[in-house]
Design brief:
Largest sheet: 4 strands, antiparallel
Shape: elongated
Bound molecules: zinc ion
Structural class: alpha+beta
Strand content: 15-25%
Length: about 190
């Protein structure tokens, strides 16, 4: 074997090696892209599910928001331990978050007082619809729009009052979610 042949053999094996490395690299990048895509998809699915859940129960929305605030506060506490960070900025962020937290607390109590939840058991509103009613008052034709509210516990309310009872509280097995709303409640 001449020196020249040896030289070209080495070049060839080097080129092969580089090609193999490049191939492996591309394979890895593709796999990484695929797993990133998969993770992104999963994240989107989760976000969608969270969105749907929040739409279903305003109470859950407020709770999940409070949870997020709690997480942020914990993160701030962790960052505070890092002396390299600007403490004034962190303090500002923290007071902002505390403000959001107190707003959420009042939002939560507003939701509980509103018609989003059954006044007897706290079940979420499942359907809200409005329709027009006609009638005669003093010989005149009057038209009015009334609301019909339905809750997951079976309670239905319209302009005539409770047209279908709350099954959780007035049924055989009462399961009151909010003990403050007693059965004797005059609503
Ligand atoms: Zn109910």
């Amino acid at each position: 074997m001449t020196t020249e042949v040896l030289f070209y053999t080495q070049i060839a094996s080097l080129v092969t090696f580089v090609l193999v490395v490049f191939g492996v690299y591309r394979l890895l990048v593709q796999q990484k892209d695929a797993s990133i895509e998969l993770l992104k998809q999963r994240l989107e699915d989760q976000s969608e599910r969270i969105r749907l859940l929040e739409l279903q129960t305003p109470d859950a929305l407020a709770s999940s928001l409070s949870e997020r605030v709690e997480i942020q506060l914990a993160e701030i506490e962790r960052l505070r331990l890092d002396s390299n960070l600007n403490r004034t900025e962190i303090d500002g962020k923290e007071s902002e978050l505390r403000e959001v937290q107190s707003k959420l607390a009042s939002l939560l109590s507003t939701i509980r007082d509103s018609d989003f939840l059954c006044p007897h058991c706290g079940a979420p509103l499942s359907q809200r619809s409005s329709y027009d009613i006609h009638g005669y008052v003093d010989g005149r034709d009057v038209e009015a729009t009334v609301e019909h509210l339905e809750y997951e516990c079976g309670l239905a309310i319209n302009h005539e009052g409770e047209v279908s009872p709350c099954r959780r509280v007035s049924g055989d097995a009462p399961v009151p979610m909010q003990p403050s709303n007693s059965l004797e409640s005059t609503r």
